[in-house]
Amino acid sequence: MESEKDCIFCKIVAREIPSQKVYEDESVLAFKDIHPMAKVHVLIVPKRHFKNVEEIAASDSDLLAHIVEVASKIANEKYNGSYRLVFNTGLDAGQTVFHAHAHVLTGEKLAE
Ligand code: AMP
Ligand code: ZN
């Protein structure tokens, strides 16, 4: 598995840092965000290190489609299937962890 030293999400994938797992398969791990912005706030992280969603799209579009499928599965299991999917990309968008991740916000009616 491609990983980067000192990357917090590579460490979570490697179980060097604990997380509250929601879903896992061969290509992704999904776990609860430590600072939830909605009743259900889950991060879906590819196990392979990509710096942002653009890198995923450019090198593995099937993986990007898979992340959307997993988001939908989580929103159906935890709520009524409605969800917001966010990929912060770049510093000015608020990206703080440079290992691509999808924020899945669900579990309630979200503020607009
Ligand atoms: P972003 O700002 O899009 O890069 O999102 C990074 C997200 O990771 C933030 O919402 C943080 O709350 C979350 N986060 C950072 N460290 C951890 C951790 N150890 N476990 C779970 N979530 C984390
Ligand atoms: Zn990483």
Describe the SSE topology.
Layout (H helix, E strand, L loop, with lengths): L7 H6 L7 E4 L3 E5 L7 E7 L6 H7 L1 H18 L5 E3 L15 E5 L6
Antiparallel strand pairs: 1-2, 2-3, 3-5, 4-5
Helix pairs in contact: 2-3
Give a summary of the structure in a few sentences.
The chain has 112 residues and is an alpha+beta fold. It has three helices and five strands; from the N terminus they run H-E-E-E-H-H-E-E. The termini are far apart.
Describe this protein with a few key phrases.
binds adenosine monophosphate, 5 strands, globular, 112 residues, binds zinc ion, 28% helix, HIT family, subunit A, alpha+beta
Report on this model:
The protein is α+β, with helices and mostly antiparallel strands. The chain has a single domain (4-106), classed as HIT family, subunit A. 28% of the residues lie in helices and 21% in strands. The protein is built from three helices and five strands. A five-stranded antiparallel sheet has the order 1-2-3-5-4, with helices on one face. α2 crosses α3. It is globular. The N and C termini lie far apart (38 Å). The mean pLDDT is 96. The structure holds adenosine monophosphate and zinc ion. Residues 3-4, 7, 9-10, 49, 99 line the site of zinc ion (ZN). Adenosine monophosphate binds next to loops.
> In sequence order, what are the helices and strands, one letter per element?
HEEEHHEE
Q: What does the overall shape look like? A: globular
- Strand adjacency order, main sheet: 1-2-3-5-4
- Are any ligands bound, and if so which? adenosine monophosphate, zinc ion
Mean pLDDT: 96
Q: CATH class, anyone?
A: Alpha Beta
Beta-strand percentage? 15-25%
Largest sheet: 5 strands, antiparallel
Query: SS-based structural class?
Result: alpha+beta
**Corresponding CATH superfamily:** HIT-like
Number of helices: 3
